[in-house]
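Deviations from the work plan: none for this task. Representative record:
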Amino acid sequence: MAYEAPNGELFAAGHRGCAGCGEMNAVRQVLNAAGPNSIVANATGCLEVSSTGYPESAWCIPWIHAAFENAASVASGVDAALKSMGKRDGVNVFAFAGDGGTFDIGFQALSGMLERRQKVIYVVFDNEAYMNTGIQRCSSTPYGASTTTSPPGSQSIGESQDKKPIAAIVAAHEPAYTATATIAYHADLKKKVKKACEMEGPCFLHIFAPCPTGWRHGSDTTVELSRLAVDTGIFLLWEMEGGDFNDLKVTKKPPSPRKPVEEYLKTQGRFKHIINNGEEIAKIQALVDEKCKRYGIE
Amino acid sequence: MAEACITIGAVNYEPGSSRNYKTGTWRAMRPVLDQDKCIKCGLCHTYCPDSAVVKAEDRSVSIDYDYCKGCGICAHECPKQAITMVEEEK
Amino acid sequence: MGEKIVIRGNEATAVAAKLCRPNVIPAYPITPSTLFPEKMSEFVADGELDAEFVPVESEHSAMSAAIGASAAGARVCTATASQGLELMHEMLFIAAGMRLPIVMAIGNRALSAPINIWCDHADTIAARDTGWMQFYAENNQEGMDLMINAFRIAEDKRVLTPGMVGIDAFVLTHTFEPVDVPAQSEVDDFLPKYNPEHVYLDPARPITIGSFGTPQYYMEFKYSQELGIQASSPVIDEVFADFEKRFGRKYAKITPFMADDADVLILAMGSMNGTARNAVKRLREEGKKVGVLKLTVYRPFPEEELKKLAGNAKVLAVLDRDISHGYGGAVYADASGVFVNEEKKPMLLNFIIGLGGRDVVIDDFRNIYDKCMAAVEKGGPEQRVQWVNVDFDACKGGA
């Protein structure tokens, strides 16, 4: 019998997330879809720090944090332990991490977990930089974005590399299920979480989560920006079972024609240095166009 | 001085104890819900980062001002503009 | 009844672990401890051990998975050495801070650079601050027995502290020795099922472990943790005594040999104790008053026992198979700290010996004894820290 949380909220109020935090909302959406028979192994990051300042905890499910780069290996240990003790059935074992603890330092542990085909649902909450330490660049940071370690200047456009295609890399490991989601499209996200919970092998959910503090936008536009990211094709919503990319399904097509990237870029302070630079905006548009083409989107 | 119990391994046995801290004090703006306009779609409850929108059995919603940080997402997303952000009284 | 078999040190620790019925073994291979994960995976594959063997992709993940599994409520063990132990270094502190009774066998090996796979205590010595209990085996029998004892001590509700058991690289890990293996039923009687109360992950009882500990709380948690490892001291005596009663083999934190009236006492850890005793027997035949103190438990450091056993000697020669660069040997530093304010204290000399697999031989002990007696005559040593059996001339060109 799982514990019954107040108001049924498995991620309780009172946490110290910024007002309008996309990640905190994403966590609520994921857990409300997964239900109380869930255990989370969490990496160091905004989520962990804001939700567990001793003696308070926002978590109404069993939760463990060990270090930054190992959510996947800690979750692997939990999975193996429950299995060995005959307590595995009916329990969702999640690994929660930010883009920092996944794309970069957490990459090895993630790859190992996938390769061992452990029954872990790895959820990356992607706000496109190391936010907890004050907005440093990550391999998840998109081309042109300003961060404290990719600052724009006379010699720099900001982040010089485009986003690492983490979900595609994970899918190439041929896990049970790979999907991308975002907070605005909550029904799509809910469906994908429930699907992952039904799977018998490793699953990966890449959740795009805007950050008012790091991206410099109003705290009230978090959900709107996640919608705009999909509508411009900047973030694509798809899912795939197994490893055959021919089976990849786009679950939410952007409108046709897609909204121009400029509409998205101009909403955020992290792009303000390029918003009047037609050449850079065209570059970003071209990157997005090329990616959409590869995914069969006009 | 440490006020709380020092447990073995710093294990916290109180789920949801974050509720001891009322983040409602952070607010500069407060959401005001016009129940007449509300269609009980539940989007405000879905999109709140802070579990500060409470859904009742009949799907009607209310704001938990103890925790609401005043981010304005609910007002922004409400399809019926049933929520307005007003300045928080001192 | 058990059986007597001839096995390598690695296998002895693996067989010991198997007898302790672990639930989860996350492990990564590294010389010289590789045979441990090999044997554990073999036991699982053959159905001899009902457990989950997790072939993780690095040692850091091995300890991470061990932490996850132990926090989930399972009995967990693993093994590593040298660079592997260093790679998981941050996780060692975390395992201890979370009070998870994980047991780990270490094939004591030197640390790079330069890379060296042979016998040396640098790896576990570098982990002395992590909050893990540390046991050092002299031979394969001790390796096996200390592993079994470690599970029971670690899981004791008064202790709840992880423990590592060191067996010397190649000298023990790869050397065949006869070992008395206890029967499974005997070990089951000695080591009850792991039944954690303080931490297990179950949706029926949600807990948060790995909280953010602010300055308001951190120091109390660290003090509380220190109380835990200090509490292991009497529990170790208790468990060793029970082990002796059941299995007939006696263990102690420090085991004296010909020590009562010794002018010079030699403090040593690991396999070099065998050589030390042989050397001391010969020196005694020459009328020299010398003895050995075998240090088996290094953490918690056995202060009271050392004071009692070495207080009256003229010289305590502390052998370190490690070097804390810029200071001297670590065991020497710890031993010195114990005596610094005592009235009854020996002169303390430090000997750095046997690094990177350099053999420790009988002549070394003769030299050490001579140096100690010279120091007694002169009222102090020429050097506080002396390196044994090193080609100093060859080193003059460099630095």
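The mean pLDDT of chain B is 95.
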